[in-house]
Design goal:
The complex is a heterodimer of chains A (about 325) and B (about 500). With about 325 residues, chain A is mainly α. Chain A has helices at about 5-20, 25-45, 50-75, 85-125, 130-150, 165-170, 180-200, 200-210, 210-215, 220-245, 260-270, 280-300, 305-330; strands spanning about 175, 180. Chain A has one domain (about 25-330). Chain A is built from 13 helices and two strands. Chain A starts with 6 loop residues before the first helix and ends with a helix. Chain B folds into three domains: about 15-255, 3-Layer(aba) Sandwich (Rossmann fold); about 265-345 and about 430-450 and about 460-510, Rossmann fold; about 360-430, no CATH class. Classes of the chains: A mainly alpha (about 325), B alpha/beta (about 500). At the A-B interface, α1, α8 and α9 of A face α11, α12, β18 and α14 of B.
Chain lengths: ~325, ~500
C-alpha cells in the first residue's frame, strides 16, 4: 500500500521534482555515450581533440534540429516521413530564389515553402483525419518530385556574393569557437523543450499521444494539436534544410534524400521516446542524436566503413527499444 | 442419460462436469473472488447471478483460462485440472460465448466455424466442399437458417450468437458458458435461444447462464448460484426461489431495508440540465428529464437499455436525432465534448481506462488535463501551481498514490475513478454525468465514491448517475428513473422504495 503524501514533504518534493527530476529513460543513452567516449578516446588519439568535437557538433546540428521536430510527431503516436523531402525542396527553392533576389527573399521563399508543406501535412492529418504514415508517405514522394521539377534535376550553383557568404554563415560559420548551426540547434531545442514542458499545447501533445479518446473527452482540440505538431516537425525540417543547403552553398534536389530521415526517426527512438506516443521528450532525443553522431564519428576515425556503421546503428536502435521495454516492465 | 435434470444424486461423481472449490482471485486493490465454490452437472442449465462487480466475469474468465486463480481448485469430471490458458480450457471442452462475440467479421460463417482447425485436402489446401457440408450440419443443429458462405459482418447479433454456439458444438463443447446472451436480442430471438439452450442441455451439455434478466431465469434454469462482492451466497434449486428472494440474494437485502431512501438533505435549486424528448435512432427515444442544483438523479436499466448512449449524447460525443438539450434554461447545441465542457458539463465515463484517464501520463497531469487554462500565465504553464492544485485534490479526495508523478494507470480501480472525478472537479463544470461510477471498484472505495457524489450534489451542482447496481441506485439517488429499451418507463422518488418495484420496471418496462 502506498503512503500518504504529507504536507511537510510536499514542498520539498515539488522543488526537487521540478529542478532535479532525473528522467530514468535518459540513463541508458547517457551511459552509452560515456562508454563510447571512453572507448573511442582510447582507440583513437584524434577523438578527443577540439577539432573533432567541433566538427561532430557542426555536422550533427541539422540532425539535432530534424530529430527535435520528429520528436513531436512520435510523441503524438505518429511520425513524419516527409522531413527528408522538405529538406530537398527548401534547399532548391532557397538557392533558386537567392540566385536572383538575394538571401532575404531566398530564405523567406525556402522556409515559406517548407511551412506550407508542413501545414498541408497537418491539415490532412488533423482535419481530414488521414493516418500520419499515409499522409507523410504521400508528401515524401510529392515533395521529392517537386524538388526535382523545380531544379530540373540538377544542383543550383553559382550563388552571388555577398549573399552566398551569409548563406554559408548559417550553415558553416562560427561565433567565437562555436559553430553557428550548433547555436541555432541549441536555440531550437530549447524552444521545443519549453513548448513541450511549459505550455498547454505541449501538454496536449502528450495527451493526444497518451490516449486520443481521453484527450477528446477532456475537451482538447485534437485536430488543432495535430496540425501544430506537423508544423513543428516540418518547420524544423525546413530550417535544417536551410542550414544544410548553406553549408554546401548550393541548392541540391537530393539533399534530404539520403538516410537522414531514418537517422532522425532512429535518433528519437534511441533517445527513448515511445513509438506509441505519450512518453518521451526533446532532451531524450538530443541524447539519441549524440549517441548516433559520436558513434558514426568514432567508427569513421577507426576507419570502419560506412556499411558496417549502418549495421551498428541499426543494432543500437533495436537494443535501445529493448532496454526501454525491459525498464518499463520492471516498473 | 436423458430425462429431467435435477434428479442426479449428489454423490454421482460422473454427473459433475465442473467443480470449483475455494477459488480466490485478487486484483490490485480489489478482491474479485473470495473462496468461491461452484458446480455444474451434466445436462444442467445453471444460472450465475450477481450485481455488477460481484465476480461473475472473473469466475468465468478463470474457468475459460483467461485469468489464473490465486488459490483454489478446479475439477472437470472429478479430475483436478490446471487451466493455464484458453487453449487448455478448449481442450477440456469449455466454451465461453461472450457478450462481445468473438467471430472474425470479415470471414464467412463456414470459415469462422472452422477457424484454426481448417479441414484440408491431402494437398494441404482447404477442403471447401467438406467445410461447407460440415458447417451446414452444425448450423442445422442449432436451428439456424444461415448460408454457410454468408459474411459474419452482415449477420444480426442473434444470428452471430447462433454461429458461436454452432462453433462450440463443432469442437464438441461439454461445458458452455453464455454471458448475458440476451442483452441485445429481441423477445422472439431470445425465445428461440432458450429453446436451443434447453435442447443442448438435454443432449448432455452443461450450461452456465449469466444474465441480469431475472424473468428469464425461472423457466430456463435448473439451479441458481448467486455471487455478491466476490463471495458465493449459495446455490439453490430454482424452484425454491421466487423473484423477491433472488433480488434479496443479489443485493444483500439487509442493507436495502436498513437504509431506505429519501436522503434528500439539500433543498433543490433551479434546473441545471433539461432534456426534452431527446432521441437517437435505435438507442433511446423520447427522453425528457430535469436535473436540478443539489440533486442526484439516477438512471437505471439493463445493459443495452441505452443509458451510456444517452450520457454520451448529453456530453456531445454522439449527436441526438430529435429533441433538445437545455443548460441553465437555454437551449444548447452540443456537437463535441468541447461544446459540452464549455456548457459546464462533465462526463465520468464507464470505461475509465479508455475514456477517462491517459494511463501513461502522470497522476497530476491527468488531474489538470481538462482545466489547464487555469494554470497558464502569459502562455506558460505554472507547474508549481499545477502541482499544488494536484496535491490539494489528492488530499481532498483521499486518492492514494505514492507520488503525483506516477503514471495514472498504476493506481487501483477506485483511486483511478476518484482521479477522473478530481479532473472534473478541477473544472468549473456544475453538471456531472457519471456512468457506472463504481464498476470495478472495491467495496471500501465504493463508500468513498458515494460520499464524493453526495458532496458534489451538496455543493450545489447537479449529478446524473447511470447505474445498474440496484444497491447503489437505492443508496445514492434522490430520484430514480427506470429506463427500459431506450425509454424512461417509471419515475421513483427514493423514499421507502421497494427494490422489487424498481426491478420490475427495469426488466419488464413497467412497475407492478
Amino acid at each position: 500500500m502506498t503512503g500518504w503524501v504529507t504536507d511537510s514533504t510536499i514542498g520539498r518534493r515539488r522543488r526537487s521534482a521540478l529542478l532535479g527530476r532525473v528522467d530514468p529513460a535518459t540513463v541508458g543513452p547517457s551511459i552509452a555515450l560515456v562508454v563510447m567516449f571512453a572507448v573511442f578516446s582510447i582507440l583513437s588519439p584524434y577523438f578527443l581533440t577540439r577539432n573533432n568535437l567541433t566538427n561532430v557538433l557542426m555536422q550533427s546540428a541539422p540532425l539535432l534540429i530534424l530529430a527535435t521536430g520528429q520528436t513531436y510527431a512520435l510523441l503524438m503516436g505518429g511520425l513524419d516521413l516527409s522531413q527528408g523531402s522538405i529538406i530537398s525542396l527548401v534547399s532548391v527553392v532557397t538557392a533558386g530564389v537567392l540566385l536572383r533576389h538575394g538571401i532575404v527573399l531566398g530564405a523567406v521563399a525556402g522556409l515559406g515553402t517548407g511551412f506550407v508543406i508542413s501545414l498541408v501535412n497537418g491539415l490532412l492529418i488533423g482535419r481530414a483525419r488521414i493516418q500520419p504514415f499515409i499522409v507523410t508517405l504521400g508528401t515524401l514522394y510529392m515533395v521529392a518530385g517537386a524538388a526535382m521539377v523545380y531544379s530540373g534535376g540538377s544542383s543550383i550553383f553559382g550563388l552571388p556574393k555577398p549573399d552566398v557568404d551569409y548563406f554559408f554563415w548559417f550553415g558553416g560559420g562560427f561565433i567565437g569557437p562555436i559553430p553557428v548551426p550548433t547555436l541555432i540547434a541549441i536555440a531550437l531545442i530549447a524552444i521545443a523543450h519549453v513548448i513541450l514542458t511549459r505550455t498547454r499545447f505541449g501538454r496536449h501533445v502528450y495527451a493526444v499521444g497518451g490516449s486520443e479518446t481521453v484527450a477528446v473527452m477532456s475537451g482538447v482540440d485534437v485536430g488543432r494539436v495535430k496540425i501544430l505538431i506537423y508544423i513543428v516537425s516540418g518547420g524544423y525540417a525546413s530550417i535544417a534544410g536551410f542550414l544544410m543547403s548553406g553549408r554546401v552553398i548550393s541548392g541540391q534536389p537530393l539533399l534530404g534524400a539520403g538516410d537522414i530521415l531514418l537517422q532522425s526517426i532512429g535518433a528519437v527512438i534511441i533517445g527513448g521516446t515511445s513509438v506509441f506516443g505519450g512518453q518521451g521528450g526533446v532532451l531524450r532525443t538530443v541524447l539519441g542524436v549524440l549517441v548516433v553522431a559520436f558513434m558514426v564519428n568514432g567508427l569513421n576515425l577507426l576507419a570502419i566503413d560506412t556499411f558496417a556503421q549502418q549495421v551498428i546503428v541499426g543494432a543500437i536502435i533495436i537494443l535501445s527499444v529493448w532496454v526501454n521495454s525491459l525498464r518499463r516492465r520492471r516498473m | 442419460m436423458t430425462g429431467a435434470v435435477g434428479h442426479w444424486s449428489t454423490d454421482d461423481k460422473q454427473a459433475r462436469i465442473l467443480q470449483v472449490l475455494g477459488l480466490c482471485k485478487t486484483f490490485p486493490g480489489v478482491v474479485a473472488l473470495d473462496n468461491v465454490d461452484f458446480e455444474l452437472r451434466r445436462g444442467e442449465v445453471h444460472a450465475l447471478l450477481g450485481a455488477n462487480g460481484a465476480g461473475k466475469s472473473t469466475l468465468i474468465k478463470i474457468i475459460a483460462g483467461l485469468y489464473q486463480a490465486d488459490a483454489g481448485e478446479i475439477r472437470i469430471n472429478g479430475r483436478h485440472v490446471a487451466i493455464r490458458d484458453t487453449q487448455t480450457a478448449k481442450d477440456l471442452g469449455i466454451c465461453v460465448i461472450y457478450q462481445d462475440l468473438a467471430l472474425a467479421p470479415n470471414l464467412s460463417v463456414a470459415e469462422n466455424l472452422f477457424l484454426g482447425r481448417e479441414l484440408l485436402t491431402p494437398l494441404g489446401l482447404i477442403d471447401w466442399r467438406r467445410t461447407k457440408a460440415k458447417a451446414q450440419r452444425l448450423l442445422d443443429r442449432v436451428g439456424a437458417d444461415i448460408a454457410t458462405e454468408a459474411m459474419v459482418s452482415n449477420l444480426s447479433i442473434a444470428r452471430r450468437q447462433l454461429v458461436e454456439i454452432a462453433k462450440a458444438l463443432g469442437v464438441d463443447a461439454k461445458l458452455l458458458i453464455l454471458d448475458e446472451p440476451t442483452a441485445s436480442l429481441s423477445r422472439g430471438e431470445a425465445e428461440k435461444l432458450f429453446a436451443l439452450v434447453r435442447r443442448l442441455a438435454q443432449s448432455g451439455v452443461g450450461i452456465v447462464y449469466v444474465s441480469h434478466r431475472l424473468e428469464e431465469i425461472a423457466p430456463l434454469v435448473d439451479r441458481v448460484t448467486v455471487l455478491r462482492d466476490g463471495k458465493s451466497v449459495g446455490t439453490y434449486p430454482v424452484k425454491q426461489l421466487d423473484r423477491e428472494k433472488i433480488v434479496a440474494l443479489i443485493t444483500g437485502h439487509e442493507r436495502i431495508w436498513a437504509q431506505p431512501g429519501g436522503k434528500r438533505e439539500t433543498a433543490l435549486g433551479e434546473p441545471l440540465l433539461e432534456l426534452r424528448h431527446l432521441g437517437r435512432n435505435e438507442e433511446f427515444h423520447d427522453i425528457s428529464l430535469t436535473l436540478r442544483r443539489g440533486e442526484i438523479l439516477v438512471l437505471t436499466g439493463l445493459v443495452g437499455a441505452g443509458r451510456t448512449e444517452l450520457l454520451e449524447t448529453v456530453f456531445g460525443v454522439r449527436i441526438a436525432d430529435t429533441g433538445e438539450i437545455h443548460v441553465g434554461g437555454r437551449p444548447v447545441t452540443l456537437s463535441s465534448p468541447r461544446d459540452a465542457i464549455r456548457s459546464g458539463i462533465a462526463l465520468i465515463p464507464e470505461d475509465r481506462r479508455r475514456q477517462g484517464l491517459a494511463v501513461v501520463m502522470p497522476v497530476f497531469e491527468n488531474i489538470t488535463l481538462a482545466s489547464l487554462a487555469r494554470f497558464v500565465h502569459r502562455g506558460v504553464l505554472r507547474l508549481g501551481q499545477e502541482l499544488q492544485h494536484a496535491h490539494r485534490m489528492l488530499k481532498a479526495l483521499a486518492i492514494k498514490t505514492s507520488s503525483p508523478f506516477r503514471p495514472a494507470g498504476s493506481l487501483s480501480g477506485g483511486n483511478q475513478q476518484k482521479l477522473v472525478v478530481a479532473k472534473w472537479l478541477s473544472t468549473s463544470a456544475d453538471i456531472f454525468l457519471l456512468d457506472e461510477p463504481t464498476q470495478g471498484v472495491d467495496v471500501g472505495a465504493k463508500e468513498e465514491i458515494y460520499r464524493l457524489i453526495r458532496d458534489i450534489a451538496a455543493s450545489g451542482k447537479g449529478v446524473l448517475v447511470v447505474s445498474s447496481d440496484l444497491e447503489e441506485v437505492l443508496e445514492i439517488g434522490h430520484r430514480i428513473l427506470a429506463i427500459h429499451q431506450g425509454r424512461i418507463v417509471e419515475e421513483f422518488v427514493n423514499r421507502d422504495l421497494e427494490p422489487s418495484r424498481l426491478m420490475d420496471a427495469i426488466t419488464h418496462g413497467r412497475a407492478v
